[in-house]
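Fold sample X.
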Amino acid sequence: MKIRILYIVSTLQKSGPTTQLYGLISTLPKEKYVIKIITLSPEPQESRWNEFVSLGVEADSLNMNRVEGMFFAGNRLRDVINRFKPNIVHSSGIRSDLLICRMRIGVSWCATIHSYCIDYPLQYGRIKGRIMAWLHLRTIKKMRHPICCSLSLKHLYEQILHRPMYAVQNGISIDRFRFEDEKRQRLRETYGIGEEEIVYITVGNLLEVKDPLTVIKAFNLLKKEKVHLYIIGDGVLRKTCQEIADSKVIFTGRIENVEEYLLLSDVYISASISEGLPTSVLEAGAAGLPMILSDIPQHREIWNNESKYIHFFNVGDVATLEQKMNIMKEMRSNNQTREIISKSIISRFSSEKMGWEYQKFYDYMFEKINQSERKSVSS
């Protein structure tokens, strides 16, 4: 008997959680699982909908805006559940989590928790963020199977909720980001970057929680001869970032070919205040990039100790970040180093490994369902 899984998300917009969902579903064997995805809202322009469909996954959308969803999403979703008859419902994101919790669907339910609710004010604004954090924490506390995307998040939630949590670490699709020196050389030639030039790169939404201003301020202190900083991503802080950045800082916005920029760069930087288990850091690691990371538990989970090519700095510490950037500039990495970094990430954080862990969890949930059915029949 195949296990029928219904995934519920807001949209399939290009983002870290969508990347994780794609990596998970692409690893699930079709002979064992029947999969359907339901999105709550209309798809944005930057959507991965067609990529999911190309996996042979059935996908549908309720096509509701947030106001419509408050009143009608429950009934529409219940109709979908009654038709599809899933064994397991798997939600991802605050909207789908709150909706499923409110509906009491009577189907075994798990949810992936991608971020730390306490830090929502840094993402969504002080008032809205506090309301969202309160709602989401209440919902997580009621979940039977909350699955954190990192061991660090699991520990943080267990401390504040005083209940056990599960964890499956994020993974990435390796092939796109695997380090190849020949490809790196070709890309640098294509983008007009000399071998003697140093390229720093940071990837992520330009939000307070990612703290891109600290990266720019530290870069501004460097001597600017033969150095560049690529900032990949967009967000509400973009205008502020551009106002303080000099001509050596290149803002690309959201782009399709992130892997090319990672492969041609020399040093990856993340100044995040909070994370789940950052996809961008995993992808940069797969590309073999030395890193300078803010000293938060989620970064330490990926790189436990500081080393010659992995450096940490305290959150918001511009002076120390500038010092670490200078160290990296003088040191330079070689092909052997980049291969070591790449292999370390590939061996620990692949989509295949993540998918296998989720399969074990689904099997556990499915067995619980069967046990419950057997008890009801025998009684």
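Fold sample Y, listed below.
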Amino acid sequence: MDAVNTYQVFDWLWTSGQLSENDIARLHKEGFTTIINLALPTSSNALKGEAELVANVQMNYFNIPVEWELPEVEQFELCAKLLSDLHECGHKVWLHCAINMRVSAFVYLYRKLVLKHAENEAVHPMVNIWTPNPLWQEFIEEVVARYKPKPYDHETHKLH
């Protein structure tokens, strides 16, 4: 693979930095059905025409452009729903961004909050790639806070 920071998360999910044209052809031959890109099409190392290159080998392509300085909880939620749906349908997925920092943070949150993995499992592959900077640490905390169970008031029988 030409892509940097390539990691297998599960049999059905791999992550990396920016793919090359050769990588896309190889992924198709290896049985991948879907590529999800979290980088902006204007990223400095973006592959021009990536969506078309993926379509040309009859694979699915999704782009959720996450601005490095402005990640949004809704983008994580969209990515998590997409991953869950694709897995449920038996797809083999390659999830990438520019260098696997955005992706590794999203995968950490997906494993921790959606799949309910223990912290020592959920941190793979993020722990091997980077320690989130303050902006991304704040984003992670914001997502985690949104997923915390709300307290239940037994008197009013309502969530708070």
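Sample Y note: The beta strands are 7-8, 13-16, 34-37, 60-63, 93-96, 152-153, 158-159.
Also: The domain at 7-159 is CATH 3.90.190.10 (Protein-Tyrosine Phosphatase; Chain A).
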